[in-house]
């Protein structure tokens, strides 16, 4: 059985239009057929055999069931790079690119950098790629060994033949004991910060498919902030920077958690003008 590509494209576009952006039909087709953008229009009148049709419609079914397209095609663009993702990690969001845009080295020649709750490694690896000459060591920690496998895969994909021993990924539970032999000049963290009420009301494609341990931050959504406030005092250099992502309505509560030992350096809004990342330093 064969079907013309242009007819197939039209069918899938119509199916997905009721649910999602109709452009997703092109994305699913290109990925299933292994096509680059430049070759996409060249096969518009080509015939597609039954084997590929099965693969394509299986992916369409997954999308119609609500599964995020990033998991189906196993990739997501973040900052200037493309990262491998699967259901073991949170899908990178555009607002998290604020970490990269506001990573300042403060005239330090060689920095030690830690990323807590590293997930896919997109934040750590983007920062490393842009500042590799000035980073002496960077480490990503996460409670999920499956997430760390994704982060390690992304490191190999991004570093290629230039892979060097500056980057490491370690399984650690920050609610237990965090061991480190060094102080860090820079710590970033995109913690789980969704409260119980918010979690129960999340959209289906988030709640049913993305890992709960990367979303749920306790009943009030602030459990990780309380823990980070304590452990970062042991991990952060006395003049180091701590950057943390937070939820829409959490700024005042997060400042209250950190006010005893930290001072606010700057607060960065996202493109919707919602406070998204806070930069902190330890009080002298």
Topology:
Blueprint: E1 3-4, H1 5-17, H2 24-33, H3 37-40, E2 47-48, H4 50-64, H5 69-73, E3 76-78, E4 81-83, H6 98-101, E5 111-116, H7 122-131, E6 135-142, H8 145-159, E7 167-171, E8 184-189, H9 196-200, H10 204-207, H11 223-235, E9 236-245, H12 251-258, E10 262-269, E11 275-282
Parallel strand pairs: 5-6, 5-8, 6-7, 8-9
Antiparallel strand pairs: 1-2, 3-4, 9-11, 10-11
Describe this structure in words.
By secondary structure, the chain is of the alpha/beta class. Helix content is 37%, strand content 21%. A 7-stranded mixed beta sheet has the order 7-6-5-8-9-11-10, with helices on both faces. Strands 1-2 form a two-stranded antiparallel sheet. Strands 3-4 form a two-stranded antiparallel sheet. β6, α8 and β7 form a beta-alpha-beta unit. The longest helix is centred in the N-terminal third of the chain and has 15 residues. The chain is globular, with a radius of gyration of 21 Å.
């Amino acid at each position: 059985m064969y079907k013309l590509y242009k007819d197939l494209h039209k069918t899938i576009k119509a199916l997905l239009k009721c649910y999602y952006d109709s452009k997703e039909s092109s994305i699913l087709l290109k990925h299933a057929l292994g096509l680059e953008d430049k070759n996409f229009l060249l096969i518009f009148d080509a015939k597609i055999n039954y084997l590929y049709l099965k693969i394509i419609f299986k992916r369409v079914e997954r999308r119609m069931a609500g599964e995020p397209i990033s998991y189906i095609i196993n990739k997501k663009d973040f900052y200037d790079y493309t990262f491998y993702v699967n259901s073991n990690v949170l899908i990178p969001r555009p607002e998290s690119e604020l970490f990269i845009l506001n990573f300042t080295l403060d005239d330090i020649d060689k920095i030690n950098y830690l990323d807590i709750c590293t997930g896919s490694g997109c934040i750590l690896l983007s920062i490393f790629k842009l500042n590799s000459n000035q980073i002496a060591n960077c480490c990503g920690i996460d409670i999920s060994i499956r997430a760390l496998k994704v982060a390690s895969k992304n490191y190999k994909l991004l570093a290629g033949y230039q892979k060097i021993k500056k980057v490491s990924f370690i399984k650690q539970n920050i609610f237990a004991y965090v061991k480190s032999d060094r102080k860090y000049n820079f710590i970033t963290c995109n913690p789980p910060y969704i409260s119980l009420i918010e979690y129960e009301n999340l959209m289906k494609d988030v709640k049913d498919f993305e890992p709960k341990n990367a979303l749920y931050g306790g009943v009030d959504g602030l459990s990780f902030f309380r823990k980070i406030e304590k452990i970062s005092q042991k991990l952060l250099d006395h003049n180091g920077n701590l950057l943390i992502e937070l939820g829409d309505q959490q700024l005042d509560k997060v400042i209250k958690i950190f006010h005893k030992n930290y001072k606010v350096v700057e607060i960065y809004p996202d493109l919707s003008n919602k406070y998204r990342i806070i930069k902190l330093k330890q009080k002298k």
